[in-house]
Amino acid sequence: MRKGVICLLTLACVTLAGSAMANASQALNEDATVSAVVEPAEKPLAVITEEKVDAVLLPVDGTGNIAVFEKEEPIEPIKQPLKKLTLEEELAQDQQLINDDEAEKAIGNLTAIIEERGCLVPARAYYLRSVAYFNMQKYNDALGDAQTASRLDEDEPLYYVQKGLIRLAISQMYDAMGQDAAVKEQCGMVEMDSDKSLEFQHRYWPALFCRAISNYMRGSIHKSLEDCGDALKRGGRGVSFVEAFNVYVQAERSAGDARFPTVDIQPVLFNSINGLMNTPDKKQCMEIAV
Known about the structure:
Blueprint: H1 2-37, E1 55-59, E2 66-70, H2 87-99, H3 103-117, H4 123-135, H5 139-152, H6 157-176, H7 180-200, H8 205-217, H9 221-236, H10 240-253, H11 266-277
Antiparallel strand pairs: 1-2
Helix pairs in contact: 2-3, 2-4, 3-4, 4-5, 5-6, 6-7, 6-8, 6-11, 7-8, 8-9, 9-10, 10-11
């Protein structure tokens, strides 16, 4: 009886142990299945900070990982050095500024050229600055530069005409103030400058026309018309202010005749002086047939 009870207890223990092992094995298999089904947790995306503004963010693969690549700086084109203008090109630019009524800018450029080059400054630089000063009605400065130009290049007729035109403008100022003696003194120097110009080029129409204006302002209408006629023959025909001056002086000569009204020649004088001053190329003085 006792042996039988012991056998039953042993059998029960074995049965329970086997059941426990089976349950444990089943639990292990279920855990393995769950583990295989659960997807791996995603890695946090990279945080873009201000320090990485210049970086380019590109996905590397399907896992959400982001790679950071430094942005390539654009290649700047090679800057070619500015071509340095020749002196002639610089002076041509300043001549254009004067033609475009930018006298003040031209004066600045020409002053820089004169200061940089010292004793190597060509006469034309002073001549151009003289024209610019004249257009700003700075006649003393204009006359000083014209005198310097004629000293540097004594054989250039243009520079003597330049001095004459400035003196004519000064004469007009004296005339407006009623200073007849000062007018005659200035006109006398104008004729000297014109004669000097004609020594180098005896058919130079700007010099002839300059002297025609001077003769008129001194009261010699006959000589004025004679010089103006020669100026027309030598290249002034077709130039508006020369033609106008000739017409007005002839009208004034005939003013005693009732058929001709009294004329005001002062605007014509002003246009003639300023017109000749700013004629682009007074060096061209081809003689025309009459």
